[in-house]
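ok here's Thioesterase superfamily protein, seq below lol
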Amino acid sequence: MADDGASGGFAGRLGAHVAAADDGSARIAFEVTADHLNPAGTLHGGVLATLVDTAMGTAVRTATDDDDVPATSQLTVTYLRPGKPGPLSVTARVRTKGEHLTVCEAEVEQDGKAIGHAVATFALLHG
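and the structure came out like this:
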């Protein structure tokens, strides 16, 4: 998969950028702004869930055939500490790839500290 920069769809509208994507891994760069905060003033959990889902889906696409479409069938996000305004990155990698199911893992870092971890299972829809 080529590095095309902007992420598409909902994640792209949030401002997510694919910084790298190759060989079963992907990295997304993101700038947390006031628009991404919850009432407590920290990064909204739904935004973080979108970012990890997008990074892992991108990683899966680099490890599948062009006619295979990954569909998230299970997503577990662990919030380790609150996110805040400023840059963060999400790094995702394929852990296990099967014929019909693929398992990925993602780490979210901000200011050199882990703020989230995620694991997801993707069903591969064959075109």
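fwiw Residues 45-61 form the longest helix (17 residues). kinda neat tbh
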